[in-house]
Amino acid sequence: MIVNRDMKQIRNFVLFSLFALAVSCGSGDKKEDSTSSSADSCMSGQITVWGEAPIYASISMARDNAKEDACRTAVQKCIGEQVAAMSGVSDGQAVGNEIFSEAKGLCRNDQIIKEEQYPLDTVKMLKVFVRYNISQTDVRNQIDTMQKLVGNPKIMVLLREEYDSPKGKKVEGFSSRSGLAGGVLRNYLSGKGYQIIEPGNLGQINEDAVSSNPSLLSDAIKDKAAKAGADVVILGQIEVKPKTSAEAGTDGLNKNVKSYEALGSVSIITLWGAGNELGVYNKPANGAGFTQDQAFQAAAKRYAGGPNGNEALAKFVDEKLKQEWSRLVRNNLIQIKVKGLPQKVSAVFRDDLSKMGCKEINEQSIQDMDMQYEVRYPGKSFALADSMSFYREDPRMFASIKESGKKPRVKEVNRGTIYIVFE
Predict the structure, then answer these.
(1) CB within 10 Å: which end of the chain, N or C, has fewer?
(2) Is there a contact between 286 and 268 (Cβ–Cβ < 8 Å)?
C-alpha cells in the first residue's frame, strides 16, 4: 500500500490521534458505540477499550481472548483508521489486521476496569473494559514501523548477475550479497522506505532458467516467498560483458579507456492473490573506466541505479510500485475454499465474510459441504486468515456457528487462497 502524501504529516497526525482518541466498543457490531474519554486522560498515555470473547473452556481463557479483542480494536481505531484515512488505500479494519502482529506491543501494562457477562443466544459472553498504559516513545516507534508496513510492499530481490570480468566469468546468485546491481537496487529501495526480505531457504531453484524466464517461477517458490513476508519479487538476470572498440567508440584520445555493457531483463512480480507481472525493465547500461574492473563494475551499477539514479532499474521499480500498488491492495482477489458447511448456511457465511472486511463476495461454486468464494479484500490473505482464526469461536463474528453447529478452522493459507474447514 503506497502512502502518497507526506509521511511526516501522517506520523504526526496519527501520533496525536493515538493520544487524543479512546475507543469504547460494546457488544454487537465492533464499529458501533464508540466514545472518547477526556483529552487529559488521552494525553497522559492511556487507551481504554472494550473487548469481548465467548466463554467455553474457562473464564481465564475467555478473559485473555477478550483482552486481545480489545487490543485489536485499539490498533484498528487508533492507528488503522487514521493511516487508512490519510493514505486512501484501504480501510481501518484491514489495516488493523495487517499490522496487528507488529502493533500489539502497544497493548502492555493493562488494567481491567470492568468485567461482565451476558448471554448471546446459547453462548455466554465475557466483556471487559481494559485500560492500556503506553509511553510516547513506544507510540512513536510503533507508528514509524506501521508506516513502513502499510506504506510500501515488502520486496524480495532475486537477481542473477553474470560478469565477464578480467579474472574470468563470475556469477552472483539469488542469495549472494556481493552482486553489484543487486546491492545498488536494495540500497535504493531501502532508502525509499521499502523493507527488503532476504531470500532465505527457497529450496532448489534452477536460477539460470528461472531468472531468464520469470514465468517459470513455480507457485511453490512464490508461496515460500510470500510466507517469508514478501509482497513483491524482483526477478531477473543481468549480464555484464566488454564492448568492442567499435562499440565503445574508442579513438586516439581515449584508447586507454575500457568499456563494458550491462544487458538484462528484470520483472516485477506481485505475490498478492494469483500474482501478476507489474512491469519489465530491459534497458542496457554502459560503464567505462581506466581498468576493466572499473568498467564492468560501473556498467553493473549503472544498470541498477543509473549515472544519477535516473532512468534505471531502481527508479523503474519504485515508480511502477507507486503507480500500481495502492490500486492492487484495494482489490486483492482471494479464493476462500470451505468444507463441512451445509449449503443452507451459505448465505449466513457470506454475511460473516462481510464482517471480516471482505468485499464483492462472489460464489464460485456452492455444494453441500463444499463451497468456494472469490472475494476482494484490501489486505493480504494471511492477515484475513489471522483474523478468521482469532474469531473462529466468536458467535458475534461468525453467525454460521449457531446455524451449523460447527466452528470454522483455517486449515491452510497460502498466496491468494484460504482453506477453511467447519468441524
Answers:
(1) C
(2) no
* Dihedral, 369, 374, 375, 379 alpha carbons, nearest 10: 100
| Domain boundaries 331-422, CATH class | alpha beta
Judged on CB neighbours under 10 Å (0-12, 13-18, 19+), 227 is: middle
Q: Where in the chain is the domain with CATH 3.10.129?
A: 7-151
**Cα–Cα distances in Å, from 392 out to 17, 39, 101, 382, 383?**
31, 36, 18, 15, 14
What 3-state class would DSSP assign to 139? Answer: helix
The number of beta carbons lying within 10 Å of the beta carbon of residue 119 is 8
User: Amino acid identity, residue 106?
Assistant: L
| pLDDT tens readout for residues 151-198 | 678 899 999 999 987 778 899 999 888 899 999 999 999 998 888 999
Determine the angle formed by the axes of helices 292-305 and 180-191, rounding to 10 degrees. Answer: 40
pTM reported for the whole predicted model: 0.66
Percent of the chain clearing pLDDT 90 (strictly above): 34
The hierarchical CATH code for the domain 155-328 is 3.40.50
Classified as helix, coil or strand, 185 is helix
Q: What is the CATH number of domain 7-151?
A: 3.10.129
**Boundaries of CATH 3.30.70 in the chain?**
331-422
- Residues 45-91 have pLDDT tens digits of 677 888 899 998 889 998 988 888 888 877 776 666 555 555 555 55
Phi, psi of 293 (to 5 degrees): -60, -45
Backbone angles phi, psi at 43, to 5 degrees: -70, -15
